[in-house]
Amino acid sequence: MVKKLCFWMFKQERDLIFYDPVEKSPDAFVDENSSVQVIHVSDQEFDHYANSSSWKSKRLC
Q: From which domain of life does this come (predicted)?
């Protein structure tokens, strides 16, 4: 069974927030109460994710 994966992206802070992540990044802050993972990324990484069709296809919420 595939876990649901939802991305919330905040361009101003350059954060990627993953709900129910398939893998937890060692660099991420994880809120244990909500299983939310927050990753700070560079402008280039953020733009890459923002323009990637792979994350858009997984955005379920």
A: Bacteria
